[in-house]
Design a protein that fits this description.
The complex is a heterodimer of chains A (266) and B (285). By secondary structure, chain A is α/β, with parallel strands linked by helices. Chain A is built from nine helices and ten strands. With 285 residues, chain B is mostly helical. Chain B is flat. Chain B starts with a helix and ends in an 11-residue tail after the last helix. The chains are: A alpha/beta (266), B mainly alpha (285).
Amino acid sequence: MDARTPSAVELKNVARRFVTPTGDILSALEDFDLTIAPGEFFAIVGPTGCGKSTTLGLIAGLAKPQAGEVTLFDAPVEGVDRRVGFVFQQDAVFPWRNVLGNVMAGPLFRGVPKDKAEETARDWIVRVGLKGFEDHHPHQLSGGMRKRVALAQTFINNPQVLLMDEPFSALDVQTRELMQEELLQLWAQAKSAVLFVTHDLDEAILLADRVAVLTTRPARVKSVHTIDLPRPRDVAKLRYDERFIAIARNISDDLREEVLRARAGH
Amino acid sequence: MAETSIPTPAGTTSVRMETLVERQRRRARLVLALRLAVLVFMVGGWELGVRMGWIDPFFFGQPSGIVDKLIDWSQNGTSIGPLWLQIWVTIYEAGAGFLIGAVMGIFCGIALGRNQLLSDVFSIYIKVANSIPRVVLGSIFIVALGLGAASKIALAVVMVFFVVFANAFQGVREADKNLIANARILGASDWQMTRAVVIPSALSWILASLHVSFGFALVGAIVGEFLGAREGMGLLIATAQGSFDSNGVFAAMIVIAVVALIAEWLLTMIEDRLLTWRPETSANE
């Protein structure tokens, strides 16, 4: 990769290993290389348990690699970076705070005065379509609505790099489609680089500019595919578009090979 | 839900709902009636047993005698002074011990739970301390702190502290890893993390332990008074025991039970206030 090309996220020869309870060393990532440009929507697909989430943890600064280098805007990652946002697979909104309290958590943690934080939070609540639910607690909301809270909670911090760990996998199909639309709209405004991890290839193609297929453990990047579908994309319609189907067929052969290998390995 | 989706005239649905509500009410009344029946059966059986000569009231007391004793105590005072004073002394000792022990337990539990190394080192000692019968320390406190309230409060503190401490500690350790990661990425400092994530998630553990530990505080205060005191419900029981007054022992027991129930009720109210964010759990569903 040309050194002068600006990158939002870069992983070079990264390895991440764990010690299992039985004392063995498990390699989640080996020789892992990945570059994401600023403002790019990048998706990673791979067999379950192949180390997709591990990658996100390294970029977020929640874990350190045993080898190699992880950089954000060409500076090495040292701990949690303020420019990074993270949307989790499971619910990670605070159950004891209402919607408003959840959305304004980030700015408050970062020292924004309370009235300013509340003003911004109310604005974001409207933008994710939760107006009128400010005083509700998470348990009173549906799964899709909780995801909207999580999105507002993350986007309010204006992340330049947004990491998403199978954020919509727990939602039903209809809600998932709505949330995908919503995410694309938010992203178009925020212009952040997105690293979207999913096991759903269709989702990856519908959303991303580029899709990387990972190998089974230890994970490496097997292939990167550029998705040249025009934007703005209509998620509901695009699914039946011929170009989409052609791309999906092409990548899915790649992916199936790895899924089969993963199954054979277990 | 399934029933309402079937297209029926609105009238039918509301009639059905009414019978459902009616059925639930009837069941609630039945449960209450059966509970009363159990009470009447047990207390009545006891009284009858005494009157028929099957149970010796000298050893096992007699319900009517217990009621007489309670009336006598509240009107004429007990052998060691007015009843209200004894109750107040015990509540004071248990309450003070409870507050001190709970605050110390919460503070130490959270501080230790937040530090990985300290918690790894001390977790074994917490288990040991929890399994020691701490009531025995009462004797030491009487010797060291004398017959006044201080020794009883100290015993109540010890009884309460370890329970609350162990729960606060566990609550902190069990805090959801996702929530912690989320708060960290949203920008929380260590102190903000403790306040925004760790304490709220440990709170339900802590509150659960407070329920149990007020009972322990009462036990601590009463056992302390038992071992040596000038006033209090424990002394009243010890005095009754000394004069072979089984009705007196039972009467004191009932007074203590009422105190414990009131405290339990107050704690539940506080808990409901603090945990409003939790989904309501209905016993009927």
